[in-house]
Amino acid sequence: MMNARERMLGRLRAAAPAPSPDSAVAALDLRIAAHYDGPRPGAAALVDELENALRASRADVWRATASEWPAQVAARLAQHGAKRLLLDPANKEGAALAGALPSEVEALPFNGPLETWKSELFGTVDAGFTVARSGIAATGTLILEPDAGTPRTVSLVPPLHIALVYADKLHATLHDAARGERWRDGMPANLVLVSGPSKTSDIQQTLAFGAHGPRWMWVVIVTGEQS
Amino acid sequence: MTAQPMHFVAPEDFHQRARAALNDPKLRASFRGAMDFLQTKRSSQFPDALELEHLRDLGEAIRQHALANLPQLLVQLEDKLTAAGVHVHWAETGDEANEIILRIAQQRGARTVIKGKSMASEEIELNHYLGERGIECIESDMGEYIVQMAGEKPSHIVMPAIHKTREEIGVLFEQHIPGTAYSDDVDTLIQTGRRALRTAFAEADIGLSGVNFAAADTGTLWLVENEGNGRLSTTVPDVHIAIMGMEKVVAKLEHIVPLASLLTRSATGQPITTYFNLISSPRRAGELDGPREVHLVLLDNGRTQAYADEQLRATLQCIRCGACMNHCPVYGRIGGHAYGTTYPGPIGKIISPHLLGLEATADLATASSLCGACGEVCPVRIPIPALLVRLRTEANRNPNEQVAHPLKGQGAKFSRGDKLVWRFWSGAFSHPSIYKMFRWAATRFRALTPSEQLGWTQHRTPLKPAPRSLADLMQDRNQPE
């Protein structure tokens, strides 16, 4: 007796044309590459583009040097009234931020598997801090690769998401990012592209923020020289 | 949340509901506003017409390549995902898909399922099925949450609650969410929805989502959204079940880049949505969140019928952006509920016959002036008008006629009388002598034409032949004095 899988595949195979030769895939890949071909903005223009696009999506974005940003983020957090901030003290950015925090803001590492402290995470954490793997200038997008130190929910559950991206890690387009980072060679369990705070226009096409994800998103673009 | 009981409608009653919708000024105004908004948003995303046409060519080529290799790509996707620890299931029908999901839920002793947006789950009426078996499904997309609360179905595939005004939503929330005062401020309403669903995310046993694209080469599910509810549904519960129409796989992850751009720009006029959520495996060793168990249900439910026919296969190129409905003069006037199908508008007219059969859906293909707007905006160039004509032909074909790929419900609108009239018509027009006789008779006996002329006289004055035919008049004029 055949199962559903065999019956579905059988019907497809009976109707499908002969499999495309490899040359057809190569031709398609070339057409895609050609579509995205063209002059790429220089390093400074990439930062401008990213900043503008993120701002258009209502993220709060600014530039800072590696030595400046921890104190700036810390001051803003205090002003925002955040009490508990999720960060990874094991990475250098997390450690730098933890060191700069005023006493009223608590630095909180991701304390064990989610299921052991879910309600605490949902109920008591005000902000989450992540370092983006890279960014996409054209659409104002940060590419996050959650890991053991900074799991997926850090950029998702707290109402404020703070993300750091290095200016020298910017791609012009999503196409460049996927190609340049060789996504085809293997993907992490979860890769997340974030372009601003959570939003919806499901009620009468009126834009509202903080639908289910973070209501606020701060992005620090870390530049090499004095900003 | 307490919701109204689900109100089911049948596509067979299309004409009745369409008339009711046309006479509902509030619904008309709300759809007109929404359609104008979405059309403007879309066109603002494509300032360069040439780039748009190139990208549409590319989108079409990518989808056609994927469909041409569909059986191999599905097997490759299954292999990749299985190796990564994802369970892949195949469902021939909606019932089978429901049973698979129920079995997973029962094995886990699950009581609640939190849902990200999934039109495939609407198609199989999963909420109803699980609900009858004691498992509650909670829709978490704001639009879906609202229509679920109202006991309705989505009226648009991208914006489910497009037919509802904020005042109506204010009343719904006041009635159904305990401790909520009436408000028609959109921001307040969204924050109320957010608060109400927060616990549901944290407590649900299973998260269920749709899939926008799947890549066979890396074994990746690509989910597109703005709210974050999709990410929460696929991240917080210990089990994630994704359900996907079997046509959505493409050969390579890199092929999704142009498709995703076409999708967000065509659907809501956004260069990109807030989140692209790329899932390639369950929680890995050392990770502290993410589901421990991930399932993918591949759904046929009539798609292989469309696939079997070379012309109708183009239906499966669809990436579910909704641009065709946003630009359809019929959809814009009657709204989504009139269709009585999960997918309304032009795409609904061409996909529903495969899901439900032509008996129930034959009236949909004729509810079109064939103006071609849908085909012009389709980001993957589905020739929707040509497919509508084809489906009309299939609905009127003799049910006993043997064809290579018969459709479910072939000949649902077949009538011997109609066939006879058309045969006479084509005979008269291809034989001048018969036509002349017909002309002679029609002009001489014009007084005998009936004043009741079926559908024609419902809204129009009766047709009556002129006393003299054009050919006669021309002959007179050319006659030398």
From TrEMBL, chain B:
<dbReference type="Pfam" id="PF13183">
    <property type="entry name" value="Fer4_8"/>
</dbReference>
<dbReference type="GO" id="GO:0006089">
    <property type="term" value="P:lactate metabolic process"/>
</dbReference>
<feature type="domain" description="4Fe-4S ferredoxin-type">
    <location>
        <begin position="308"/>
        <end position="339"/>
    </location>
</feature>
<keyword id="KW-0677">Repeat</keyword>
<keyword id="KW-0004">4Fe-4S</keyword>
<keyword id="KW-0479">Metal-binding</keyword>
<keyword id="KW-0249">Electron transport</keyword>
<dbReference type="Pfam" id="PF02589">
    <property type="entry name" value="LUD_dom"/>
</dbReference>
<dbReference type="InterPro" id="IPR037171">
    <property type="entry name" value="NagB/RpiA_transferase-like"/>
</dbReference>
<dbReference type="Pfam" id="PF11870">
    <property type="entry name" value="LutB_C"/>
</dbReference>
<dbReference type="InterPro" id="IPR003741">
    <property type="entry name" value="LUD_dom"/>
</dbReference>
<dbReference type="InterPro" id="IPR024185">
    <property type="entry name" value="FTHF_cligase-like_sf"/>
</dbReference>
<dbReference type="GO" id="GO:0046872">
    <property type="term" value="F:metal ion binding"/>
</dbReference>
<keyword id="KW-0411">Iron-sulfur</keyword>
<keyword id="KW-0408">Iron</keyword>
<feature type="region of interest" description="Disordered">
    <location>
        <begin position="456"/>
        <end position="481"/>
    </location>
</feature>
<dbReference type="InterPro" id="IPR009051">
    <property type="entry name" value="Helical_ferredxn"/>
</dbReference>
<dbReference type="InterPro" id="IPR004452">
    <property type="entry name" value="LutB/LldF"/>
</dbReference>
<dbReference type="GO" id="GO:0051539">
    <property type="term" value="F:4 iron, 4 sulfur cluster binding"/>
</dbReference>
<dbReference type="InterPro" id="IPR024569">
    <property type="entry name" value="LutB_C"/>
</dbReference>
<dbReference type="InterPro" id="IPR017896">
    <property type="entry name" value="4Fe4S_Fe-S-bd"/>
</dbReference>
<dbReference type="InterPro" id="IPR017900">
    <property type="entry name" value="4Fe4S_Fe_S_CS"/>
</dbReference>
<keyword id="KW-0813">Transport</keyword>
<protein>
    <submittedName>
        <fullName>Iron-sulfur cluster-binding protein</fullName>
    </submittedName>
</protein>
